[in-house]
Design brief:
By secondary structure, this protein is mainly alpha-helical. It contains 5 helices and 2 strands, in the order E-E-H-H-H-H-H.
Length: 125
């Protein structure tokens, strides 16, 4: 199995290792690329939903959008994105919206980094 690792140039100290996702897909790089493209296509609108629900203090909408983004990230084993989305999912579920602005900012930074990494990976492969 080929180790598929990307290190973003964003300087956040994040490293993305897609080898687990690739292993789960039985080494099907075409399917991995489809998942990456799907993330790139869907993440901006889902992230917009997260931001809007935070701005409107809508717990259920936040839970739904964050949960969806968590699933998209988990499919790529993008742990930091999935963890940040899970945190917002939990905040929405619990109605604990007092720290969502900061958590949303953190999630957005990780999503932007992941998007850069995915675009670079797809351009190189």
């Amino acid at each position: 199995m080929t180790r598929t690792q990307c290190k973003p140039s964003a300087g956040r100290g994040e490293q993305f290792d897609f080898s687990l996702a690739l292993a789960r897909l039985d080494g099907d790089t075409g399917l991995l690329k489809q998942q990456m493209e799907s993330f790139l296509q869907d993440a901006p609108s889902v992230m917009a939903d997260v931001r809007a629900s935070v701005a409107r203090c809508e717990a259920e909408a936040l839970r739904f959008a964050a949960h969806r983004l968590k699933g998209l990230a988990a499919g790529l084993d993008a742990e930091r994105v999935a963890e940040c989305a899970a945190k917002l999912d939990s905040m929405g579920r619990d109605g604990a919206l007092h720290e969502t602005v900061a958590a949303c900012g953190e999630l957005e930074a990780h999503v932007e980094t992941l998007q850069k990494v995915l675009r670079a990976y797809l351009a190189a492969h």
